[in-house]
Amino acid sequence: xxxxxxxxxxxxxxxxxxxxxxxxxxxxxxxxxxxxxxxxxxxxxxxxxxxxxxxxxxxxxxxxxxxxxxxxxxxxxxxxxxxxxxxxxxxxxxxxxxxxxxxxxxxxxxxxxxxxxxxxxxxxxxxxxxxxxxxxxxxxxxxxxxxxxxxxxxxxxx
Length: 158
Description:
The protein has 158 residues and is mainly α.
């Protein structure tokens, strides 16, 4: 993704849902990929997107929501799920695991990502909309997109 693809007029929720669609596409691509090289490349694309998304989402949605009592448990749960995905990616990045464990962990990661996106969109976002005022939602959308793009640019060629 390049900066030209950013729509800084999107509020935080529209910006996040747009990236959720990217993540769903990458999960589908990874699931359908054949051959080890293709699977690893598809995984690397998904990993970069998940890491950029989590870093920017935690800072520009979870932290503002956590500043309100009614947002604490919501944010804690979502951050826990991000941590679980990070642990799965650490396992996938461990060059010592066998193909069977890699495939199982990869399937678990895809399942976790899909569950997390659905839960965020169906529950977390509904509650967060009530907590954050419209003006703040708008500002956070731009901040999220800029940080996401910067993360991809600085980590994309690791």
